[in-house]
């Protein structure tokens, strides 16, 4: 079971006393902690009514969103939540999950104010997760928004178990009005909103071509829609995706953009072998070889299948930079034996 937890008003609820204790526990010097707390506690807010500023409110908790320092301080606070989950896993009350034998065991992942918890879908595990979250809430002031939290179950989980766990998933669809927008305004809206919505999913998964075509059809219909005239598409979408210098509008080709984002994931895997995602994917898909030698495999996950689709694009733009020669493979013609350059060093120059 995968629990996706959303923290309600994450930055606004951080208790200053908790932040001070966390920094002290992590070993920060007292003088440094005093300077940080001075920056945090010297904030004041005012109201603007009809263009005039009124009043002054001094908060007693919370971090100012938009301040570069606040993001790092919030990460320090969430480290205590990680410690609670690690302690529960070490005690055996929460079982860690591994995708395969030899892969790192994972109990939780954190991204900004979102928390993902991985645990068995049993009635004995969920109360332990709730105790961990309640403990974190009492200490830090953070509160889980149950209306925005969701659960994803394995297909092997019985349906009655899902109902007893009692976590709902709500899908919200938000529309936008286009009646009063010019084509210039529609262009900005398509570039900034419509084509940006699927970007996060496309950076991790290869979306079906039919779905990408639906996105493009939605954007095209929105752009050419007119209340007083017939909806005629005067220009092909492929040409509209060209740059403005080439007569287009600079819209994204979503299929090419999807592959580019997946190729970027390959670059991250190549340059960050110490990352958790690299260790998990390597243990599952290429445990005894290099990333460039990896294959799709017999039963690949959707994540690996998606990333692997960008392998040809990624390799076509890669070049080896000669170093010690321990990782570079040398070969002239297809069918000839391949050797590492370090093995050929005895041949001299």
From TrEMBL:
What keyword terms does UniProt attach to this protein?
A: Membrane, Transmembrane, Transmembrane helix
> Pfam families, alphabetically?
RVT_1
UniProt key word Transit peptide: no
Look up the domain of life of the source. Eukaryota
Under InterPro entries, the record lists:
RT_dom
* Reverse transcriptase domain sequence ranges: 1-169
Q: Where are the transmembrane segments?
A: 26-49
What protein does this entry describe?
Mitochondrial protein
């Amino acid at each position: 079971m995968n629990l996706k937890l959303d923290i309600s008003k994450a930055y606004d609820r951080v208790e200053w006393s908790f932040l001070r204790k966390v920094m002290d526990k992590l070993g920060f010097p007292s003088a440094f902690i005093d300077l940080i707390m001075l920056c945090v506690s010297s904030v004041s807010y005012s109201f603007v009514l009809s263009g005039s500023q009124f009043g002054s409110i001094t908060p007693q908790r919370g971090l100012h969103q938009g301040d570069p320092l606040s993001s790092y301080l919030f990460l320090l606070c969430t480290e205590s939540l990680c410690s609670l989950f690690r302690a529960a896993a070490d005690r055996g009350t929460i079982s860690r999950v591994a995708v395969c034998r030899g892969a790192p065991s994972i109990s939780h992942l954190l991204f900004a104010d979102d928390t993902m918890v991985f645990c068995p879908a049993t009635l004995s595990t969920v109360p332990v997760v709730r105790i961990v979250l309640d403990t974190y809430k009492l200490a830090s002031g953070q509160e889980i928004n149950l209306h925005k939290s969701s659960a994803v179950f394995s297909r092997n989980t019985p349906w009655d178990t899902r109902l007893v766990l009692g976590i709902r998933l709500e899908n919200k669809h938000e529309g936008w009005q286009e009646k009063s927008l010019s084509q210039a305004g529609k262009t900005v809206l398509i570039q900034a909103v419509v084509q940006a919505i699927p970007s996060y999913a496309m950076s991790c998964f290869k979306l079906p071509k039919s779905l990408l075509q639906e996105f493009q059809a939605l954007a095209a219909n929105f752009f050419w829609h007119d209340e007083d005239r017939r909806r005629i598409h005067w220009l092909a979408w492929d040409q509209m995706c060209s740059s403005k210098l080439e007569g287009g509008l600079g819209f994204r080709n979503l299929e090419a953009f999807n592959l580019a984002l997946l190729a970027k994931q390959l670059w991250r895997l190549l340059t960050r072998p110490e990352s958790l995602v690299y260790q998990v994917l390597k243990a599952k898909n290429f445990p005894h070889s290099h990333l460039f030698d990896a294959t799709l495999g017999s039963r690949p996950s959707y994540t690996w299948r998606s990333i692997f689709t960008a392998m040809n694009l990624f390799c076509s733009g890669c070049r080896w930079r000669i170093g010690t020669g321990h990782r570079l493979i040398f070969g002239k013609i297809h069918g000839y034996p391949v050797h590492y350059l370090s093995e050929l060093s005895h041949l001299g120059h």
